[in-house]
Amino acid sequence: MKTYLIDKYGDQSAVRAAEMPDPEPGADDVLVKIHAASVNPLDFKIRDGDFKLILPYRLPLVLGNDLAGVVVRVGSAVTRFAVGDEVYARPDKDRIGTFAELIAVHQNDLAHKPATLTMAEAASLPLVALTSWQALVERAQVQPGQKVLIHAGSGGVGTIALQLARHLGAHVATTASAANAALVKELGADVVIDYRTQDFEEHLDGYDVVLDTQGGKTLEKSLRVLKPGGKVISIAGPPDADLARELGTNPVLRQVMNALSFRTRRHAKRRGVTYSFLFMKADGEQLRAITRLVDAGKIRPVVDRVFPFEQTREAMEYAEKGRARAGKVVIAMA
């Protein structure tokens, strides 16, 4: 099968097209012919080797973290899917590789594609929708009337998190450019802070939850807009010991990760709030709940541009350089 992979960690020059053997599905696996995949910041971090200590992949490694496609074969123990089903997924972190023509996915990580979406639209969703769900529903347990700040509302995670927060009944604020203000309001933002001309810390206060997609100074300031007992959930800040435990890392690495987030957690504790790092996980059941919201019109994907499969490297470069106006960059295999 055709793929885009890396033989060594590095920058964009490390990514190349290559032929690889077709995957052989196990008893619980579903073999999917990939019709579309989307580009995520996680792809760049994996390519660069940023996660090699906690995710020790064997090279060569096919990149790509979410997909939509059609089932072409099922393992002997598969009960939820049949050949011909249209599906989408974020494969397990140990079984990535969606920049390819085929992939074997465990049935527990797969869901039927929303009927209302094209393959390209469906492929844009799994990673960012699961991230939003696990942050707002699972971890923050957002309740109606709570105040939620979602950074970078026009980004891949932001466009979905805004809609989910609105569905949960939250009062939602976001940061975005003036050019995207109308879009993020349409998606669910009650308050829009123009990050180019306004400091969100000076305009927002008393928030219950912040979903941080930026890290750095934005994360530091986010701690200060929370009310006592509030939560910052970050996908861009320093990892913590809970993540190390989740990933089953060794005690030494656990201590290292704990040390990386020590300063942030100390600042949070002094303000009577909490900080946690979220590394989203594959979950077919949560994806099925997201499918229901999509088909009910509660969540819609935002796709900036679709590239053909042979332009995968260009798609990655386009996304990495921040050229997307809003939402996701998608790669179409078929």
Q: Which keywords apply here?
A:
7-stranded mixed sheet, 6-stranded parallel sheet, 12 helices, 32% helix, Quinone Oxidoreductase, Chain A, domain 1, globular, Rossmann fold, Zinc-containing alcohol dehydrogenase quinone oxidoreductase, alpha/beta
How is this structure best described in words?
With 334 residues, the protein is α/β, with parallel strands linked by helices. The chain has two domains: 2-125 and 301-332, Medium-chain alcohol dehydrogenases, catalytic domain (Quinone Oxidoreductase, Chain A, domain 1, Alpha-Beta Complex); 127-277, Rossmann fold (3-Layer(aba) Sandwich). It is built from twelve helices and 16 strands. Strands 3, 5, 6, 7, 8, 15 and 16 form a seven-stranded mixed β-sheet that branches. α12 (312-320) links the parallel β15 (303-308) and β16 (328-332). The chain starts with a strand and ends with a strand. The model has no long low-confidence stretch (mean pLDDT 96).
Could you give the topology of this structure?
Elements: E1 2-6, E2 15-19, E3 29-39, H1 41-48, E4 61-62, E5 67-74, E6 86-89, E7 102-106, E8 110-112, H2 119-123, H3 126-139, E9 147-150, H4 156-167, E10 171-176, H5 181-187, E11 191-194, H6 200-203, E12 207-212, H7 216-224, E13 226-234, H8 241-247, H9 251-260, H10 262-270, E14 274-277, H11 284-295, E15 303-308, H12 312-320, E16 328-332
Helix pairs in contact: 3-4, 8-9
